[in-house]
């Protein structure tokens, strides 16, 4: 694994680089430790090859200046800037968690969730617009969702410009992401707060539908559609969308800038007015009709107490400065970890603190001023009709609205918290039922009957459904089964078949399952994907050419080919040098050889040597027999005609060492 050389380096004698977080087209972001202030920070380092480009260096400086001009919890703060080996860097607030693109990938959101998120985007944009800045690159990737449940943060003001500055795009650089660019930015490069409002409107459309409004195959086609086509109504894809929501998206995404909402503050005010008009059922509208993604539902559950506090703190009916939907609080989504770290590893979602968290609030409460006024009117009418004070009080508490209370928001609370809230409201906590839930943490409330917010008589029973957590299924043992058999077994176990890959196996025949992940017997969330590895059988191998190699060289060659050294025998050989391989079994290029097989070797002892026997004085026949028995070839030469038939000498002489099979001349007298 390649390690980033900057990890562990101390920058400016202060910032110790700990880990690499992400790498983009312009810069790499690292997690660092600020030794001076003892805090974790993000260090954004421009790519070295861009250091000579004035455009990119100025963008870095612009991001620092823009962040310094803004003091808003929804803006990623820039703490410091400097240069490392001639390359510019920024030290920024470390925001741990996913971005809005990760959330969009989980599917469409409800009207309540989408409006809450866009409200959090509009707030820091409003601060920028009031400071005379235009972001110019508003897109889901630049909206960070802190995992601690705090408000969403808008990042990367590197393209931001003052409204009074030249607003033309930089030559050679694409401004922002095409799908979110306002038409005037594409056609004339003109920047204004209205351009940021357009981008936010496109994001709102995407949150509600799960799709970009004007998609195409290439960026140039998207740009052409942005200039020549209106953003369609959300209701074309989500028919139940309330008309005020359609109107809000349209007002934010008008092609003509002068017809569009002027800035983020005006857009936020319009959004609040829309919320004030919507009923709870309209706020829950969602494409597909589901109850929400795992992450958003967990957050909605976690925010119940904060939502209840928001309702209690609503202004009085006679407050002249009340803004529409004053009780509206935006959604903040602590989304665990759904991506991959810099190394690509997947991290799991931590639900441990969701049930009691009050930092991240999803409460789109409608003002209750109308109900306060109506009660005042009723009481005033009773007084006019002459009903006495005691009689009016009796009617109000026994027959009138006083006998009805709202069911508290208990979804997401623990069973104990929910019971306390219900009883505190003067209602009866009935014996709850239990059910599995993919979205609500263990022992927390999934739903209740009557629904939260319903007006019921004092003393009515509230029956809650308590979460048993995510249903777990045991991964079946499919080792050795065919792919079809494994698929059937996994599906019948309530799980899904994930990635199917192939791998060589020494022990499992081809076509059968080698392993699964999770492994057999482990528990997994129902409908989770089980990855399956199918055997390709034993991996074939090729016996390399070994003849003439030393035994050590042959062993290395076999290892490189995935083979092992088998039995080694020796043999004399007249032409192969001692210690060199004569032959192998299987032979070079043999078929049906697989990785891990052993290969036997025959190693040469060199030519076999024999000693010429001493045969002087022996008869010719005895001498010939002795020499041939020693493995020599005998040629007889007679001296004086071989009259006596006796061996006189040999050439080579007796006692000398010669190769076996050599020719020896026997001299007979």
TrEMBL record:
SMART domains in alphabetical order: PASTA, S_TKc
The Protein kinase domain sits at 15-275
Q: Which reaction does it catalyse?
A: L-threonyl-[protein] + ATP = O-phospho-L-threonyl-[protein] + ADP + H(+); L-seryl-[protein] + ATP = O-phospho-L-seryl-[protein] + ADP + H(+)
The UniProt keyword set, sorted, is:
ATP-binding, Kinase, Nucleotide-binding, Serine/threonine-protein kinase, Transferase
Organism, by scientific name, is Actinomyces respiraculi
Which positions fall inside the PASTA domain? 469-536, 537-605, 606-669
Q: Tell me the protein's name.
A: non-specific serine/threonine protein kinase
Q: Where is the composition biased (Polar residues)?
A: 354-363
Report the domain of life of the source organism.
Bacteria
Instruction: Name the InterPro entries on file.
Output: Kinase-like_dom_sf, PASTA_dom, Prot_kinase_dom, Ser/Thr_kinase_AS
Q: Where is this region: Disordered?
A: 349-368
What would be an example GO MF term here? ATP binding
The EC number(s) given in the record are 2.7.11.1
């Amino acid at each position: 694994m390649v390690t980033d050389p900057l990890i562990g380096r101390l920058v400016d004698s202060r910032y110790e680089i700990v880990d690499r977080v992400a790498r983009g087209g312009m810069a790499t972001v690292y997690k660092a430790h600020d030794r001076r202030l003892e805090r974790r920070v993000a260090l954004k380092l421009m790519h070295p090859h861009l250091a000579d480009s004035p455009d990119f260096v100025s963008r870095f400086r612009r991001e620092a200046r823009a962040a310094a001009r803004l003091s808003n919890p929804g803006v990623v703060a820039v703490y410091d800037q400097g240069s490392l080996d001639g390359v510019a860097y920024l030290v920024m607030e470390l925001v741990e968690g996913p971005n809005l693109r990760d959330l969009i990938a989980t599917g469409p959101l409800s009207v309540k969730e989408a409006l809450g998120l866009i409200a959090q985007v509009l707030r820091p944009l409003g601060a920028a617009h009031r400071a005379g800045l235009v972001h110019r690159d508003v897109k889901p990737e630049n909206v960070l969702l802190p995992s601690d449940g705090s408000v969403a943060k808008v990042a990367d003001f590197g393209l931001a410009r003052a409204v009074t500055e030249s607003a033309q795009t930089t030559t050679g650089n694409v401004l922002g992401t095409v799908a979110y660019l306002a038409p005037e930015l594409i056609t004339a490069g003109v920047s204004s707060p209205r351009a940021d409002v357009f981008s936010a409107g496109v994001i709102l459309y995407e949150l509600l539908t799960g799709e970009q409004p004007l998609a195409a195959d290439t960026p140039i086609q998207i740009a052409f559609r942005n200039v020549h086509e209106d953003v369609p109504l959300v209701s074309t894809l989500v028919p139940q969308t309330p008309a005020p929501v359609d109107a809000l998206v349209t007002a934010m995404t008008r092609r003509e800038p002068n017809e569009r909402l002027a800035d983020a503050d005006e857009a936020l005010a319009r959004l609040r007015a829309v919320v004030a008009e919507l009923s709870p059922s309209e706020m829950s509208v969602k494409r597909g009709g589901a109850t929400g993604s795992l992450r958003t539902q967990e957050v909605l559950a976690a925010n119940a107490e904060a939502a209840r506090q928001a309702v209690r703190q609503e202004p009085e009916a006679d407050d002249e400065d009340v803004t529409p939907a004053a009780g509206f609080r935006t959604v903040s989504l602590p989304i665990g970890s759904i991506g991959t770290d810099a190394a690509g590893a997947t991290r799991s979602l931590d639900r441990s603190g969701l049930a009691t968290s009050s930092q991240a609030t999803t409460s789109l409460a409608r003002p209750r001023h109308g109900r306060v006024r109506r009660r005042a009117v009723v009481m005033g009418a009773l007084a006019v009709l002459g009903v006495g004070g005691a009689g009016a009080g009796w009617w109000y508490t026994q027959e009138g609205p006083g006998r009805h209370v709202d069911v508290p928001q208990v979804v997401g609370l623990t069973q104990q918290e929910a019971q306390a809230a219900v009883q505190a409201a003067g209602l009866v906590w009935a014996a709850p039922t239990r059910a599995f839930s993919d979205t609500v943490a263990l022992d927390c409330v999934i739903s209740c009957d009557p629904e939260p917010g319903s007006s019921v008589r004092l003393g009515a029973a509230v029956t809650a459904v308590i979460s048993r957590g995510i249903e777990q299924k045991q991964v079946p043992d499919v080792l050795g089964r065919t792919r079809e058999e494994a698929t059937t077994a996994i599906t019948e176990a309530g799980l899904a078949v994930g990635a199917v890959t192939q791998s060589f196996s020494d022990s499992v025949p081809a076509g059968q399952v080698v392993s699964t992940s999770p492994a057999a017997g482990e528990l997994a969330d129902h409908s989770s994907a089980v990855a399956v590895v199918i055997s390709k059988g034993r991996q074939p191998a090729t016996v390399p050419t070994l003849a003439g190699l030393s035994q050590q060289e042959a062993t290395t060659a076999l290892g490189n080919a995935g083979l092992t050294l088998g039995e080694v025998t020796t043999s004399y050989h007249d032409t192969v040098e001692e210690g060199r391989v004569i032959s192998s079994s299987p032979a070079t290029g043999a078929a049906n050889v697989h990785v891990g097989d052993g290969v036997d070797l025959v190693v040469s002892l060199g030519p076999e040597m024999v000693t010429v026997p001493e045969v002087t004085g022996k008869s010719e026949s005895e001498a010939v027999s002795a020499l041939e028995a020693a493995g020599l070839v005998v040629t007889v030469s007679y001296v004086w005609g071989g009259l006596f038939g006796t061996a006189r000498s040999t050439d080579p002489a007796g006692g000398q060492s010669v190769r076996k099979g050599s020719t020896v001349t026997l001299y007979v007298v």
